[in-house]
Protein 1
Amino acid sequence: MTDSTTPTPEADQTPDKGTALLEFRKVNTHYGAVHILKDVDLAIYPGELVCLLGGNASGKSTTLKTLLGMVTPTSGDVVLDGEIVNDKPISYRVERGITMVPENRRLFKRLSVLENLQLGAYLRSDKDGIAADMQHIFELFPRVEERLGQKAGTLSGGEQQMVAIGRALMSRPRVLLMDEPSMGLAPALVQVNFELIEQIHEDGMAIFMVEQNANMALSIADRGWVIQTGRVVLDDTADVLLVHPELRASYLGGRDER
Amino acid sequence: MNELAPPRQILDQDWRRILQFGSLCALTLVFIALIGMPVQLDTRILIRRHLSLGYLSLIWIPMIMGYLVSKELVLEGIISAKKGPRDLLAGALTGMIGGAGLSLLAVLINNFDLRDPLLNWSPQTLEQLNFGNGIGFGIGIWLLIGGALGIFGSALHVLPALTAKAVGVALMTVALVSILETAITDLLEGFRLTFITDSLYAKRGGLSVVSTIVLVVFVALVTVLAAGQGDALRVKYDALDAPRRKSANLTMSFAGVIALLLLPLFLGKIMNELLANVGLFVLLALGLNIVVGLAGILDLGYVAFFAVGGYTTAVLTSPNSPWISPELHFGIVILIVIVIAAMIGLAVGAPVIRMRGDYLAIVTLGFGEIIRLLFLSDWLSPYFGGAQGITNIPPVDLGFAEVKGSDPRSVFYLVLFFCAIAIYISWRLQGSRLGRAWMAIREDEKVAEAMGINTVNAKLMAFVVGAILASFSGAVFAAKVGSIFPSSFLILVSIIILVVVIVGGMGNITGVIVGAVVLIGVLGGPKQPGLLQELGTFKLLIYGALLVFMMLKRPEGLVPNARRSHELHQEEFLQDAWLKGIVDDDDEEVTA
């Protein structure tokens, strides 16, 4: 069940599995002496939207942090494009296409929207490319361009989410790590937010999303994992997971008598 | 002007407000009387025979409180009540409660002896409060004075706007002209305009009654006549197109620079000394602004780098240096100072930079003291002279001129040169990639890290740049004073620079410069006198009060960012737009 490299029969909408973009091979992590992730195997392929589900303290955030390089695994490998990057700094991974949209958006509140976007492109030096990408973000989110000179902290929740995604896109990533993208958003905005994510995904971006709102996440995802106390317990396509009885009972609030 | 509703009735909440402001007024008055300000500042005459700085330290309070008690927020969409007798009454009562506080103090001083804990519970204070006329007179007069000043303060609301403005400006001018007597005399002497000072001030200091009246009338007239001119000018400036505005800006800054360069030529020694001190603190504040304002690292031991600059210069230039005395030229020394300051910055920064917030502040506080104590220690006294310090630091030989402490004008020009460098560095860094990284770290260090910023390196860079700017200041300080002692680098210096940065406006170059000029210029540095030398020991109290006030009421500092105020306007605009179009706004978001 934990072997994600085996194609599942239902994988009709999963992209063709070449080499994984980003991979966990038997990753273990510890905080001090506490064992957090236990033999976790994950793989994200180009252009895929995958989500990681799990309850509180199940190791979701640690997975993200280990992918980005904020946490170093105690054993096992983090593989980026076939290269083991266990001890490489965050900047190395960001340069090679991993970017995180942090939980609660966490914009640089007293800096302008423009400065936030510029900071997303911090490691890039191709001025023309940066300008082009910024233009692309304005096309994606016209609202962001209107608010360019404003302080990020003064934006509404939805606008902040746009800037947070825009900031992440400014590093020209190949895989976007999203930590609880719908957290702290008004219910009406959650829907909009997932549409935004889907839109970016349709442009060919691989997205790895950690999310509490399992129903919503699975409805747009290609595949999903369920993690429990540091172990991957379920790994399947989103369609299968959506109707999985155990999952429905524990995460999808699913005792609906349909 | 909006239409006003007729004056409203006095409500319960008004009585509460009067009581509140009145008690505040009374408490402040008693506090000021008990710290001894009225007595100690009484020798400084502002208006001959009628007003001393000591009495001024008391009488401004009922006036301000009277003004504040009837100040009301103009609520949007609600017609404000017209100000009237009701507000005058409120002002009078507030002032009288304040006056009653002082009267009570006078009675208590008269009947009890609390001199043991309260040093200023003294006959002199009583004498001062009684105007030398016995206790009964004192009680009555303070009730009257308080009430009158309260009415005066609240009358500013009742009078027509222009009149109130004229009165306010005239009062401020009289206060400034009388308080800044030394500075004005010195300046006008430089311009050979002594006849003005001769007619303005009385022989033994202070304005004469006649000149006060003339000044008030003159200033009030000018205010009334010039009303609207400033606004008209601003409208004209705003109407300029971009290139014109740019050239206007250039002309203005050019004129400013020329004025700054020429000003010292017309100033006497004392004023030039003051300018040189202000310059040294501007330099320090600009450096700390990078560390605290941009990178958000609360460094409380900043004086250490000032000391490093000073001691490096002393060792390398002074023939009296106890260890090595290469007696190098200042130009070479400055280069070495940069290297050493950077190295010490790295050495101190490396271990502490991984800490955050409060912890970092405490550790830097410790490091600042450690460096001073090292210079003071017996262990290092063979190298740095211990408590005796290093003396006989030679003047800076520039070839065409000598910069030495006895010629503060030359020191000022040297400081100005370094300030220009510091301003340029700060300005360039602020807009740079590194500057953005610093601001990102200040806002959210974790996320900055996730953006790929090497936060440890960036913070170390801030520390080092700050250290270098402080060491420049230290180097010039050493050359100016001619000798250097550990006691010049007390922790107080760190604190005062921090206050300057906070009061001026963190992360804002103009604000920090204005802060340094105003605070150090007017109040003075830890050991350097300012324009208000008389304040002496009260200086630190005022620094503290100012810091608390600014943090509570104006955290963005004296000079808010042009960008920031622009944003505020934009916010208002956007809020209006949002309020009007709330429905379709939401639709748009849902269907996006």
Note: Chain B touches chain A at residues 433, 436-437, 439-440, 443-444, 446-454, 563, 566-567, 570-571, 574, 586, 589-590, 592 (CB under 8 Å).
Protein 2
Amino acid sequence: MEATERQTKHRKTALALSIIPGFGQFYNKQILKGLMFFILTVSFAVAFADLINIGLWGIVTLGEQLPRDHSIFLLTQGIIAVLVILIGLVIYFLNLRDAYLNGRNRDLGIPLNSVREQYRNVADQGFPYLMLTPGFFLLIFVVIFPILFVILLSFTNYDLYHSPPANLVDWIGIQNYIDIFKLDIWRDTFLDVFSWTIVWTFVATTGQIAIGIFLAVLMNQKDLKFKGIFRTIFILPWAVPAFVSILVFAGMFNETFGAINNDILAAFGIDAIPWLTEPFWTKIALILIQFWLGFPFIFAMVTGVLQSIPDELYEAATVDGANMWQKFRGITLPMVLFAIAPILITQYTFNFNNFNVIYLFNGGGPAVSGQTAGSTDILISWIYKLTFTSAQYGKAAAITMILSAIVIGVALWQFRRTKSFQEEDMM
Amino acid sequence: MSPKMQNTVRLTLSYIAIAIACVIILYPVLWIVGSSFNPGDSLSGSSIIPKDATLDHYKSLFNTEESDYLLWYWNTLKICIITMILAVAMISCMAYAFSRYRFVGRKNGLMTFLILQMIPNFAALIAIYVLAYITGLLDTHFALILVYAGGLLPMNTWLAKGYFDTIPKELDESARIDGAGHFRIFWQIILPLAKPILAVVALFSFITPFTDFILAQVILRSEEKFTLAVGLYKMISDQFGNEFTTFAAGSVLIAIPISILFLSLQRYFISGLTAGGTKG
């Protein structure tokens, strides 16, 4: 065995020959497979040569000459070219690997698979890929492609004045990021929006969690009656689609005909409050609305946890002379928080990106003079406005990158602690 | 205070707190229902229980010449159902492959999914808009369905894969010995056993597009293509207050069926969310 291994160097020869795809397989006397690799590579090169050529030129230059070149088309083609090249490299790598492995088998004196066995092997090993293909294809086009596009866009000056087909778009490096942090007008707006986003996320989420836990604990008392009805009522705000509730609230808080000013506050003799025109009051209203929208979810989760806490714990605490508050602090709260911790973090990231409530309630307004963002805009709704009202695509993309970095940072930190990440089977 | 008194005080306080919560929850609901029966277009001078209640607003919504409401409803249901079928089919295939096979690229594929599920898919809304624009898919339901289905894949594949992992592998192996092929094992053994998680995935895939506003707002342009969320927003933002009562009737007609669907299936929701750790 050892002697034969030293004598032959099939693996190296096969690998070297495979630099031209298929020839390593010919050397291994697997004519059919070699032909397939060869034909695949040649047709790949022929079919995509133009696309790759134009795409790579386009993504580097973003067009040189008007009206022939459309920068955004070229950018798109460029991304497609890069993806196609990646797929080509995968095929090429598989070709090298196959030639090497079969060459090694020959070195070791292991007989190679016959054509029939090869076919069965491909069918067997190919099955998972077959199952994954449709989903991955969709994912590449509607998720990965847009992400790549945004990343690249954030390094261009694509805006109203550099917008095809009338103008060309250019690469400007990290100028967008520098502008956001250096130019006064951008920095001030960014800081305003960012600080409100943080305050909003923190206050609205913490409040809805506190209310949810409080009501769940309240409802969990053994001697309470009509629990079923009350629980259903408490879940109701979650059951109604959020966009409906938010629009209804926009009507209720309306300053001319809304029920809050006209009916409720008037009944207590309180003057009308400018809910939609005064930034401070809009913020209060938004936070209150998010409490209403968000607590039922926490309520439902905590109710589930509470029912799984064994009664013995409370009985033991009673024997030790603990009062209600001590039992809550010592037993209920830690167990609940531990059980729903991952969900709580997603609640924070959800509100961080809660476009619906901000945009549907008051469009991010009231407006601030001289700024592209309204006084209650959070990052995601500001991005929306930059894209659709001021056509600042490049800046919007840069802010999207900042936002994504924050969200991914939080999510990674969270997922390192969850089970699915640590599962040995995953790897 | 005697223990009995203490109990009475505790219960009374609890009932008061619950009553306040119920009022706060139910008031907007009653207000919008009341508004929908109010005569006239605006709400000025109306009361929560209208004196001369009318069904006019409901009738005008159902009148296809006067309003696109029914069309929006139909669009929404169409988009949601197609998205659901597409997403469930792809997700079950992918989850099966990830759960049962060990292949080159599996680890990287799973990692990709894990990272992708962290980014909400509307974060790339500029790209989605520009791409839909240059591919000529702007203002089509097709684009919207693709974006919804694609956005659902990462998280729900993880969810389904987690459940598939709990189905004993001995079942596949014995079927394989009996001569069943890959696809037959998937179709006749795994899928029937995975019904609970498929129900959860189907529910998410239906509700997510139904309640989405931002992507529909980005992609859809012409009024007869709108979904309910975009249409309702347009109804209220065009001439705020002037059509408020019709808007109210429209809201009620969305809220009632969805709430019933939701309340009757809420345990599926909760089980799915607990497993996925994410709000849909």
Note: The longest helix of chain A spans residues 115-153.
